[in-house]
Every structure is written in structure tokens, then in C-alpha cells.
Amino acid sequence: MQRSLSRVLPLRTAVSTSAGLASAAVNFLAAVEVAEYAGGQSAWLAIVIAGCLIVFAGANFAELNGLFPSAAAIRVWIRRGVNDQISMVSSFVYLLTVVFVIAADAFVLGHTFSRAVPAVPALFWIVVLLALVAWSNSRGIKVAGSVQDANAFVLLGTLTLFSAIVLWRSPHLGQYRYFQLGHHWFEAIALGIFIFVGFEWVTPLAEEFQDFRAIPKGMFMALGLIAIAFGLFSLALTVAYPHSAALRHSLIPQLLVGMRALGPVGFWWMTVVTLTTAMTTFNGGLLSASRFLYALARERILPTWFSRLNKRLVPENALLALAVISLGLAVVVYVTGQYLFLINAGAGVESLMYALSSILVISLRRREPQRVRPFHVLGYPVVPAIMSLLFLGLGVEALLTPTGRSGFPWAMAFFLLLLCATISYVRWAVPRLKARSRRGTSMTTPS
Q: Any residues with CB less than 8 A from the CB of 243 and at least 6 apart, and which?
């Protein structure tokens, strides 16, 4: 008898998973960039505007999730809205963005703890946290969900409280211009979108929620919490450092803000906050991506080894494989220091997926108009069409953003290389896997 995933997750875990996946430690670096392009204290405004745009992408995912709630998520949506080949290629590229975010987050985490606890090697913290998260995930969906709930709500609550205290203690709040974006306002908003990247990765858990309709509610609640927490933090950052260029080359801006604003208490406070960001990103990333990997293997487009469930109904092989790959890439990124192109590639792929989600809403409304939709996108078809063009432009801009002294867009090169690799896999490996599966089925079927 084929076992399936367990439907036990409540609404709060939809909120914590959506918010936690987006609340990565690299967001602190992104907040500095947003402040630079926004022109100072209006960085919060750029983040809020970006959050409003992301709500439209969230509406797309809410409608698609209600239409086809599945661990395969976007794989199913693209297959039915476009075609099978594009669906497979997109799914593999999309899956790897989670690994990119985990690796980039591990880089920031390592530098944070190198500064806070210099006696302990940074790689030790990365290995221990990834191992701890993988172990807690293997204990069952309830344990992993509880870990996500605890860390995500502590993160958002303490970051909001920290920022409020910093602003309350500042004697110069009245002298700044908070509602005037600078000349580079479009770039500021584009970078602000990165703060929310990953919120939709809760959708592969659709088969494990008590009610899959909790996912849209959780996503929208999470977007509001992220906007509040990181909007306030960006404001606190620009008040503590009116000239944010001073933080441009720092890998630990949150610790510097904490030290300047609240002294040693602020430094250690932000160290703990950074730890919770890593826990939510590692835990949420492995939690969601392992289910997506499991769903792909269930369709025989990956080896069936990834689809095996342990006695707690966890796709343990998929989980362990992702943990090992994430750790390997995290170590490479930490040793080489090449993390910016991963951030740009991740942001670019996510923005392209947001554009694609709008196209899928339009396509599936036309192809399957009679299918029940628990959630409907407002302003159809005009709003989804506009959002598809907007996110397409933002995605291309992110991929073309130069990194390093050479000014070369390594993110685009990396994306194209990844695209070629996945196309080759879909073209050559998938047919062999399916043929092998068919042969195995025919051999076990009695004549």
C-alpha cells in the first residue's frame, strides 16, 4: 500500500513557513542596498511598496494553490497551464533557488558568528545548524512545524521590538524625510522585492495542512508581518546610520546597527535574531523543498529513491540529499566569498516565477474555466498581465546586475548554465527514468 503525507499542519505554520522562508539573514544586506538606492530614511517606503507588489504575486499563488493543491505545486500548474517540458525545466530551476538561498544565508551566518564568537570556526556553526534542522525535520512534520513556528515568530517579534526601541531612543527622528524616494527609486523597489522572496514556498506543503485553504491566508498574513518587521528595521538602520554607505562593504550590518544603537545588548540581540533567521530559512527551506523533491520523484522524473517515506511519513531521502547539497554549496560559498551572484540569481529566478504565475492564472482561466477556484485574483485579466510584465522586467534586471570588480553579470551566466543543465536532464535522463519505471511495472504485473 502506497503511503502518503500526513495532514496535520495548522494555519500558524502556514504563516511561520511563508514568513520564515522570506526572512533570511541576507535580508539585512539587502536592506542596506535598499537604503542606498532609496536615498536614506525612505528605505522603509520602498520595502512597503515592494510588499504591495508582492501581494499581487501572492494572489496568483493563492488562486493556483486552490486550483491544484499539491506537493508538486508549480510543477502541476505549469504542466496544465503551458506544457510538460517547460514544467519540468522550470521545476528543477525553481527547486535549486532554495538551495541558493540557504547557501547565501549560511555565508552571512558564518560571518556573524565569526564576529560574535571568534574562538569557534564559522563552518562549525553552519554544519551544526544544518544537521540540527535536518534531524528535526526527520522527526516528523509536527516537530519541523513547531521548530518553524517558534523561530519565525521569535524572529519577527524581536526584530520589530528592537527596531521600535532604536527609533524611540533616537533624538533626531523629526529631521529626516521619510516619504521621499531618491532618483533611483525603481532600483530601490526592485531590491525591496528581494526582502519577500521565498514567501510562496509554503505551497508544496499543501498535502500536509489540515485545510489547504490555510495557505493563502498564511501567505498574506506573512507578507504583512515581513513588511512591518523589515520595514521598521530598515528605518532603524537608516536612523542609526544616516549615511548607509558606511555599511556598504559590511557582511554584518545588523550587528553594527545593534552595537551603535544599543551597545553590547544590541549587538547580542541582533546575533540572536540572525540565528533565528538561519533556523527559519534552513528549516523552512528543507521542509518545503523536500516535499517538492518527493513529488517530482513520485512522478518518476527523479529516481524513486527520493519518494520513499520513513515511518514518520517524512521523505527522508529527499531531505538528506537536500541537506548535503546545501551544506556542500554553503561551504564553497563561505570559502570563496562568492555569494552576491547567488543572491542575484535567486532573486531573478523568483521574479521570473512571479511573472510566470500571472501567465498561468490567465492561461488556466481560459483552459479550465469551469474548475472550482476557492480564491480568485482581482482585476483579471488586466492586473495579472501588468504584473507579468513588471516581474519579468525585475527578474531580467536582477540577473543582469553586475557582480565583482569585472562588472560582469555572473548571475545571468550562472542562470543560463543551470538552464542548459536542466534542459539536458529533462531531454535525456527523464525518458530513461520513465522507461525503466515502465519496465519495472510490467515485470511485477501478473500476466
A: 40
118: exposed, middle or buried (C-beta count within 10 Å: 0-12, 13-18, 19+)? exposed
CA distance 43 to 355: 24
Work out the number of other CB atoms within 10 angstroms of the CB of residue 174.
Answer: 6
Please write the tens of the pLDDT for every residue from 347-403. 888 889 999 999 999 999 999 999 999 999 999 999 999 999 999 988 888 888 877
Collect all residues with Cβ–Cβ distance below 8 Å to 32 and sequence separation of at least 6: 237, 244, 247, 248, 250, 253
Residue 243 phi, psi dihedral angles, 5° rounding: -105, 90
Give the tens place of pLDDT for each residue, 77-86: 999 999 999 9
* Contact (Cβ atoms closer than 8 angstroms) between residue 398 and residue 347: yes
Q: What's the half-sphere exposure (Cβ side, CA atoms, 13 Å) at 202?
A: 37
Distinct helix (H) and strand (E) counts, the chain: 16, 0
Q: How far is CA 207 from CA 80, 202, 214, 297, 438, in A?
A: 19, 11, 12, 16, 26
3-state secondary structure of 83: coil
Alpha carbon separation from 14 to 21, 164, 201, 218, 358 (Å, rounded) = 11, 26, 10, 5, 22
| Alpha carbons 231 and 26: distance in angstroms, whole number | 15
What are residue 9's DSSP bridge partners? 209
C-alpha 427, offset from chain centre: 28
Name the residue type at position 329: L
Name the residue type at position 314: V
Domains and CATH numbers, the chain: 11-434 (1.20.1740.10)
Q: Which phi and psi angles does 408 have, rounded to 5°?
A: -85, 140
The C-alpha cell at 278 is 538561519
Cβ atoms of 23 and 155 within 8 Å: the answer is yes
